[in-house]
Amino acid sequence: MTGRTEPGRTRRRGAALEEAILDAAARELTESGFAGMTMDKVAARAGTNKNALYRRWPHRLALGTAAYKRLATAAPVPDTGTLRGDALELLRQANRHWSSPLGAVLRELLAAAGGAAEFLASLQERSGEAAAAPWLTVLGRAVARGEAAPEALHPRVATVAVVLLRNEFVVRGVPSAPDDVLVEIVDEVYLPLVRGRGAAGPAGRPPGSSAGPSAP
Question: What are residue 124's phi and psi, to 5 degrees?
Answer without folding.
Answer: -95, 25
